[in-house]
Fold each of these.
Amino acid sequence: MRAQFVLSEIGVGLRRNLTMTFAVVVSVALSLALFGGSLLMSDQVNQMKGYWYDKVNVSIFLCNKSDAESDPNCSKGAVTEEQKKQILGDLNKMTSVVQKVSYESQDQAYKHYKEQFGDSPLASSLTPDQMQESYRIKLKDPQKYQVIATAFNGRGGVQSVQDQKGILDNLFGLLNGMNWAARAVMAMMLVVALMLIVNTVRVSAFSRRRETGIMRLVGASGFYIQAPFIMEAAVAGLIGGTVACGFLLLTRYFIIDHGLALSQKLNLINFIGWDAVLTKLPLILATSLLMPALAAFFALRKYLKV
């Protein structure tokens, strides 16, 4: 009988404050969709870091004849065979840092350049002897780039030491910045949602102050009086959480797998799988249920005093 009464009161409260209930649902849905999206973005960035950092190389570019005339680092002339052997020998000794070393000749560099930038006007004027020989070093730990840079920068025959990780760091820095911006918007939306929940509870408690006063006089417990209001907020929040979960699932389905099909168009990006999305849904639903219930509970401590 008591459970039936509580459920009937929940329905009455939701219908009385339909507009505010709708506002709560929308604000909770948007804030939790951003919350879930920020969690998935973090997973995506971490997965991309693990994928790309494992593939980045440190490149030691060697001086050619053109560099000897124009680059201060190559003022002693083009790299000699002796210098190349010495550089390779030193790299092979750095077994604690270096995992693999590969050599790229001028002809190979020219071929790779033509494959990537063959349509550019500059490609037609380049010749193989203008390209740079290089050693491509695969590190055991991508963070140890500075060890290579310190050992080989400024050496005879070395034009520069470049770390591809630096380019990726700029990209991941941008993605992390966007993720924090989304979290800031999410925090503001959560504050708005909490304010709406508190106001909805206030209006509902005020409109039923006579009933709650009578219940208090006849000996009803505080929890029994508060339960319908708390459940109203929880139900509205749960609906919003369900909408947020649906939004994340639809976004993953239509943007990554189908529709825009980014997973097929952007082969260079290793997108997170469905398991990462599905594991976030219980957290979103739990938050959507507990957050409004707790907000309503603390609001009712003041507004249901008779």
Amino acid sequence: MRPVLTRSRPETCLSDLRLDRLVAGELDAAAGREARVHLEGCARCAARLTEIKAGRAAFLADPPPLPAARPAAEVRRFARWAPRVAVVLAAAAAFAFWFRARPAGDDPGDATRIKGRPRVGFYVKHGDAVTPGAAGEIVYPGDALQFTYTMQRDAAYFALISVDGARKASVYYPTAPRAVRITRGNDVPLEQSTVLDAVLGAETTYALFCADSIELEPLRVAFEAAPESPPIPAGCEVDRVSFVKRQAP
């Protein structure tokens, strides 16, 4: 079991997520100025920023190898049951260096749950920066999302179905016609990440934890027919995460 992490800096300090975004140039002008002013007067945050930059530099100097992307022909073979699925990459290893628990106080509603209902989370890779995702996260076409799950039961059958800004449903996981078996774990990364397509707007991804290996194409069709309140099959628990896809600046 992963220990619960607490802040080593006061609540008034900048979170690791904000420092990550500062380094990646993802803060707007006002937020960037505010962060830099804070750093000028806070030795703790300045030291943490140095650590983050050093870790990023070490990772980029010697990144883990990425497995090859799926051939286009293989992706097309799944088109009959997932017509709008984004390009899938077997690239979970690229995220492993960056996985860390969200510091307490960043967003208690999205912190990892150790007990209770199964949950889904995600990380976002934008350029060279990888950050934990949160509810309402701003993402861009071409970003890679690495989904994770937390589940305390012994086993379940799992699938991810996403409804995008055009109200179209896609099966994000698995690349198979039925839900796949998973076992208990905490913040377990899926073995593949998902590269976002060019459809803009709010998108919601539903994680299904089911007692049986349900067929996914009929479920995808049902989600697309009722995107505001998609039907959840009997015997399944559901968790969801939402993000907003915008045109890259």
Amino acid sequence: MSSYSYPGGVMIANPYPVDQVKIIQSPLPDKVVLPLQQRIGEEAKPCIEVGDRVLTGQVIAQTEDQFCVPIHASISGIVTAIDKQAIPHKSGLKSTCISIESDGKDEWIKTKGCGSDFLHCDKQTIIDYIQHSGVVGLGGAGFPSHAKLNKAIDCHTLIINGTECEPGMMCDEALMQHHPREVIRGVEILLHITGAQQAIIAIEDDKQEAYQSLLMFNHNDRISFAQLPAKYTSGAEKLLIKALLDVEIPSGGFAADKGILCQNVSSVKAIFDAVIDHRPLVSRIVTITGDALTPTNVEVRLGTSFEQVISLTDVNNQAHDYRMGGMMMGVDIETTQMPICKITNCIFVNNKTLKQPAKECIRCNTCNTVCPIGLLPQQLYWHAKSENIEKCTDYHLSDCIECACCSYVCPSNIDLVSYFSFAKALDKKQTADQERIDIARDRFEFREYRLDRNKEERSQMMAEKKQALKEKMAKDKEQGLEQTDKIAQAMARVKKTKEDNV
């Protein structure tokens, strides 16, 4: 097993270590709330109604967007509401959700899959099973797994990300320790689908028990292991690829463009469940940690409230701060009346403390040395603070992964990453505003062009009518002269006739 590293990042030990990484099975919840808005694409449309009885694993909402996955019931019971509710998202906005009251039976619907004989299954059929089972990236990104697989057919390398996203998380480590056979089989499914020459399982060097568990069940020569230092941000996809393969994914590019597929280890386990055990994604492992309790991992049904999951731990009676996701990139939440979603990998419960105020930047350059992307956060900070988006763009703002390494090491306690998030949002707004301005200008210019064209066409039409009238009058005059001549000739003939008669 080789050792790999990468520049930048910060060494952060697990702030809340435990002697043994366990998984607690959460009791069946009395109620689940399932959001219909997915990470990408349009909101799913319910295919059930209030009052309907649903079974565990039943599709309750879906969309025609082939880039998205359906929503499944995580318990059996009665649909009690389809309405707007608060969801765990940094926007703080409400989203349409389906609420299901449990009947206590956990009765499953019959689902499809390939079974253990997946090697004889058509590759596209397996990908369809994965999509229909609702499998997405469980490392926190939530990107649909089937979409990645469709782009990575015939890739040469498969990377399984077994590094924890952030310090304090243990959900992936617990999964590898307790479900090594399923993980290895899931990797073999991906090897069959993609036809990759090799699969590399990346694990941090402080997770030896997880490594040994996987090694014991691995009998495939195409699967190897790579150990990375327990340094944040080891789990970032582009950094992981650079460290393992020395391949750099350009800005705006994708791993699939280089013949590489990355999948989180929890997603691999979910793929095993979908293909071999015929189980859609209705539960996940969540780390509950913080200084207000003894950290643990809980396997919980999707849609269960944060409050119910936290109640399974020995949380103290003090006032608490809550954070969804990691200590670095997570989102502070005001209430625990939020549902567990597919991307909810960790919940921090900390004793409430006063935040230290930020001071002026001392230009120490520490933030520049830890940026894993090689950006200049100090310069970006000044330009973002002054809302100079053009300069931010010059300093590659769009490449910032918002890992918060710069904020973590800042001696002035400046929340640098919040400035970068603000600058990105402002850039997006300005871009949208400029697009609207461009559209309005194009419409105005086209209107002016149309009016000028109509005026020109009308002038041309009037000129043509005038010319036609002039020609007609000239013709009528000519015809009038001819008529006069004819009358004169007729009168002359009459006169001559009269004279002849006389």
Amino acid sequence: MITFFQIWSRDKKKGYDVKNIVANPKWTTDLNFSAGQLDFDLIYQSKTYLPALGSIVKFYWDHKKVFYGYVFKAELKSGKTVSITAYDKTRYLKNQDSIVWKTGTIADRFTNVCKRAGISHKVVDRPKHKVAAEVCDGKSYFDMLKSAIKKTLRATNHMYFIYANYSRVELCRAPRKKLKLILDSDSGMTDFTYSKDIDNTANVVKIVQKNEKKSKSKTATAKSDDPKRTSFKTVTKKMPSVKRWGKLQITENKKNKANHAQMVKQAKNVLKQKDLANKTLTVNCLGNLDLVAGNSVEVKIKGYRTIKNCGILKATHNFGTDYNCELEMKVMASWLASDSTE
């Protein structure tokens, strides 16, 4: 049940208790570098009030803190209904900037951009891996963090993500919580869809170095990639899954100044991420505030199997008398385990 729901002016000088007129609150968290979102309606009996854009929204469910954010959209509809969309503090990581990054960790970047965005923050899990220097010109803070997170994942197989813990933005390693919950048809799971595919899988990686001979003629006007002057040096690595799935090959250009050993390492790192069947699971279940993006949970599918450590990629909470969740999950996600056996 809703135990606290207030809207405050940005300067925190004036607040309104709207708990008794709130309807249809829906809270969404998403690992895909999207801000946490709260959608809800305010149903007025007499004079309506349209909250100012930027107003603060505070929401508790069953006496537990759920959402702290800001009004970004407000619509007045017929029937004295006001529909509102609010985002948590991670929304300000969509701000764009131009930054020359020195070699450093995700935590270094995270701390820097949060200060620039003016949002309270904390590094919960600090990675040791350092990302190479990079120029980010006119990119969002989310994109800058995404670049570092992807590079760290490829190098360490550890997934980091940004999480709004009520009013504080945190850098965490996934899973943030391994929930001691089992979702099945006997404990709240009302519907599910499980699927697997190898559409974007690769089990052969070729790292390519392009060599172009310089023309002896100073007046030569040959175009780039002239077949007479171009050759390729490659390093190829493959995985045993070729026997099961057939040859699924991708190529990547070698990193700048990489030697042969570094090209081999690059190929192996790519295969860590690509030599996997994509397994997804969508679940509808009874509501639980711990079922948020970045946590993991165990799911039991009767007549098939029990799947441990399902990483929650996206969670939508529909609050009300029939409080329920819609979950999008990654089965055997790369930050939890490696599995290419199916």
